[in-house]
Specification:
Blueprint (H helix, E strand, L loop, with lengths): L1 H37 L3 H14 L4 E2 H8 L3 H13 L3 E4 L2 E4 L8 H6 L2 H12 L7 E4 L3 H10 L6 E4 L2 H9 L5 E4 L3 E3 L4 E3 L1 H5 L6 E6 L4 E2 L3 E4 L2 H10 L3 E7 L12 E3 L5 E5 L5 H8 L4 E5 L7
Length: about 300
């Protein structure tokens, strides 16, 4: 009996020792993996992010990827921006999903994508509008954000081709006079275009036109999804004293699109502070436009 008791106690102690040893080994391996991942090169890390997106369904947020690779949030965001510019992923609100930006997102999905950047750009754009001004407002999610801030400026007359902006003005209590640029409605982005839309702008010469973009390229200009939308943007750019293009940093230097509008001479381009330094320098060197980087601090 004594031998059995001793053996039983010995077995129990050995079992505990084995458990402690396994726990220590796992902790050690975890630290080694964390160190290995945190010392990855940027290219290796981006390949690993892509591999994870391929093998694990659904969106991945920045915080998950930060913890997985042992790097900062800023580093993950730079990796995702690069993969997005390369057409390999689509940025979502707070993260990314696998797939090219050529696959068009719905208006609702794009409202969540790069939301803080679009908000900063819209705030910056609103500071360019004086009370009583006449504004041409293109369709899009960033111009849609701008419509919220325009409702705070008294006495405006706004021509818009975006039904999302029209809905914002309809629900506001401001005194904005809104003229709908009618025409053929595109269901995906609730944008109006076509001959009827173009006819609505003949005879109009606004103080400022705010134009959206699906992508921006230093040589090609700014793009649209359809020929009709591109034609309308081109016309809008000729119907205002001041032309301002709104594009967040994910849309730069991406030449995948088919339909392009050249930068009007003397136009301005507003983007957000996350724009790559090299891309920023390239656009800043263009002599036919001025780049404005939106401040994160509200100015209204």
């Amino acid at each position: 009996m004594i031998v059995l008791i001793i053996f039983s106690k010995f077995s129990r102690d050995c079992g505990l020792c084995m458990i402690y040893a396994i726990m220590a080994l796992r902790l050690s391996l975890s630290k080694e993996v964390h160190v290995a991942e945190s010392t990855m090169t940027a290219d290796a890390r981006r390949r690993a992010i892509l591999e994870r997106l391929v093998h694990v369904d659904g969106p991945h947020n920045v915080e998950q990827l930060r913890a997985m690779f042992g790097v900062s949030v800023a580093t993950v965001r730079r990796d995702l921006e690069r993969l997005s510019r390369d057409g390999l992923i689509t940025r979502t609100y707070g993260g990314a999903v696998l797939g090219s930006t050529r696959v068009e997102q719905s208006l609702r999905e794009r409202e969540f994508s790069h939301a803080s950047a679009k908000n900063a750009i819209a705030l910056e754009a609103a500071t360019l509008v004086s009370p009583g001004a006449t504004v041409i407002l293109d369709a899009g999610t960033t111009t849609g954000r701008l419509s919220h801030f325009l409702t705070r400026i008294p006495g405006l007359t706004v021509f818009t081709s975006g039904l999302n902006s029209l809905n914002t003005f309809a629900q506001s209590e401001g005194d904005t006079q809104v003229i709908v640029i009618g025409g053929l409605m595109r269901q995906t982005n609730l944008a109006m275009s076509g001959p009827i839309a173009e006819a609505a702008l003949h005879g109009v010469y606004a103080d400022v036109a705010f134009l959206g973009a699906d992508s921006v390229h230093p040589r090609l200009g700014f793009s649209s999804r359809t020929m009709g939308q591109s034609a309308l943007k081109t016309l809008m750019a000729t119907r205002a004293r001041r032309v301002v293009i709104l594009a967040d940093s994910s849309k730069f230097d991406d030449a995948w699109a088919t339909y392009w509008t050249e930068f009007p001479v003397g136009c301005e381009l507003i983007t957000d502070a996350d724009i790559d330094d090299e891309v920023r320098a390239e656009f800043a060197s263009l002599d036919n436009m001025t780049m404005i980087v939106a401040s994160a601090e509200p100015k209204l």
